[in-house]
Amino acid sequence: MAGSGPPAPEPLPRSVSRKLLLLLLSLLMSLFACYCLAERCPSRPGPLRAGSPALPSGAPRKRPEAAGRGAGSGGGGEPPGTLALLLGEGSKRLPQAIIVGVKKGGTRALLEFLRVHPDIRAVGAEPHFFDRGYERGLAWYRDLMPRTLDGQITMEKTPSYFVTKEAPARISAMSKGTRLIVVVRDPVTRAISDYTQTLSKKPDIPTFESLTFKNRTTGLIDTSWSAIQIGIYAKHLENWLLYFPIGQILFVSGERLISDPAGELGRVQDFLGLKRIITDKHFYFNKTKGFPCLKKAEGSSKPHCLGKTKGRTHPNIDQEVVQRLREFYRPFNMKFYQMTGHDFGWD
Description:
Elements: H1 14-39, H2 83-87, E1 91-92, E2 97-101, H3 107-114, E3 120-122, H4 138-144, E4 147-148, E5 153-157, H5 167-174, E6 179-184, H6 187-201, H7 208-212, E7 213-215, E8 220-221, H8 226-229, H9 233-240, E9 249-253, H10 254-259, H11 261-271, E10 283-286, E11 291-294, H12 319-340
Parallel strand pairs: 2-5, 2-6, 3-5, 6-9
Antiparallel strand pairs: 1-4, 7-8, 10-11
């Protein structure tokens, strides 16, 4: 008919409209889920503090491997392409502080306690960058880190760094201002704990007593055994002091971390320039395990204790061997006390 307009478009069938609506809702929910999983609904930003070290000029920038992602529950595991990355909230930075040692000293407990602080974000797993993966480059290392907001501190912990000869120079090359934390423990107890861990994985290994001596008759200690060698703290510290001033290294007592966790955490928070938020109210003592636990862990409202691999019962060791080890470590301990200006009371 003359004067009539174009025909009106036919409405979509109701079933098609419903499918499109459901598809749109599903897409929005997926994006929101990706955001929360990647960012873990990040905590409030802390007060602005010193910035993080940037990649040095000329530093290798290798493409991070997929295996490097998802490094523990502390963040740093979000895949690229999520809504959070698209929005650019927070950024990945090289760590401003590193727990560099020592093995079986209490580093895992310290890290878990510190992660309660809203201004600390840390990688959950040990990156082992400065001892095993240095050839991968700083860009790969940075990609392992969790996203942080302005004022938050990025941290990681790998206790084998303390005994790795190349680690101090490599960390200094990343940033001379990196703050270092070393958790130390009575070297005799530490050696037995180290052996206990190995024994749980390899039940057929020789006895602690036989591994301790090169020659039991003469009483010559085998310092090539890593369980013994790690506890010669003064020797390892000398290497670190070639690259970092003593004031840039905090020594945490593994014993006091158990007997007075809030006190030791107070020292760590002061060292990092943070407000003392982690206090006595955050801890309770677990008599079964024999060490303190958190009343509320990071991102949770439930109590949290370290896993079953922590607090293992030590085997009975010949007391003559224990006494011989104490005599062996005594001069090294005295030197360590002098170097750090702190008597840890191991004798």
